Amino acid sequence: MDGKKVTDSRHLKLQVARTRPGASVPVTLLRDGKQKELTVPIKELPGTDRLAQNGDMDASGADVLHGVAVGDLDGLARQQFKVPAHVKGAVITDLEPDSAASEAGLKPGDVIVEINRHPVKDAAEAVRLTEKPKDRTTLVRVWRNGGTSYVVVDETKNKAG
Fold it and tell me: What CATH code would you report for 48-154?
């Protein structure tokens, strides 16, 4: 995809997530032993937002929680991740494995309920709360496996951005 080798479906999802919606990328497929070349338009996945979009961070260090994709906590997400109705927030749908958020212990299926002690009601709110931070350390309260805990994501040492 776009000149980069894709090893599995998870890797493909990350490659697509790194591509700006609206772009068209060349894709090489292998089907029935034959190679096919296609150009594929990348569109926004409905109900999914990215925290700190790749390429959107300016030199001042605006935006935090790079490499984290979130979605609204709808019925399907609640069922898939066994999230009770009283839990409010944004569910982590994807995470880059080498990101500071991943290193801090966040994982897909976690529900972000607070960012820097501000409640998160949905994916759009999570995105808004990651814009123009005071610093590169973010306190994230997550719901996972029936309970909540705090995770500190420190991007001051992170090479990504």
Answer: 2.30.42.10
Residue 62: pLDDT band (50, 70, 90) is: very low
Measured on CA atoms in the order 85, 96, 154, 54, is the torsion positive or negative? negative
Domain ranges of the chain: 9-41, 48-154
The predicted model gives 56-85 an average pLDDT of: 74
* Contact yes or no for 57/161 (Cβ under 8 A): yes
b/e 97-110 (16+ beta carbons within 10 angstroms → b): eebbbbeeebeebb
- Residues 80 and 91: their CA atoms lie apart, in Å, by 11
pLDDT tens across 83-116, in order?
Answer: 999 999 999 988 888 888 999 999 989 999 999 9
Residues 60, 63: Cα–Cα separation, whole Å: 9
- Please tell me the least confidently modeled range out of 16-25, 28-37, 39-48: 39-48
Q: How many CB atoms lie within 10 A of CB 45?
A: 16
Tokens of 45: 């996945």
∠ CA 26-30-33, rounded to 5°:
150
